[in-house]
Amino acid sequence: MRPDEARRGLVELLQMADSGERAAADAYGAGRLESRNVVEFEVAAW
């Protein structure tokens, strides 16, 4: 494998990891927001 091919592969791997991390953070944030809305609804109903 040539150095430029290895570098390109590393850049692609880092970009995939970054997008996966961002997707996980978005999913976590959405889950937190959803659970907070449920708690507020239950408190309001009580």
What is the strand and helix layout of this fold?
Elements: H1 3-45
How would you describe what is shown here?
This protein is mostly helical. It is built from one helix and no strands. It is rod-shaped.
Outline of this structure?
The chain has 46 residues and is mostly helical. The protein is 93% helix and 0% strand.
List keywords for this structure.
0% strand, 1 helix, 46 residues, rod-shaped, single chain, mainly alpha
How many helices? The count is 1
Strand runs, count: 0
**Percentage of helical residues?**
over 70%
Rg over CA atoms, rounded to whole Å, is 20 Å
Low-confidence stretches: none
Q: What is the H-and-E element order?
A: H
The biggest sheet, with number of strands, parallel, antiparallel or mixed sense and barrel status, is:
none
Mean of all residue-level pLDDT scores: 73
Write down the overall geometry.
rod-shaped
State the secondary-structure class: mainly alpha
State the end-to-end CA separation.
65 Å
Beta strand %:
under 5%
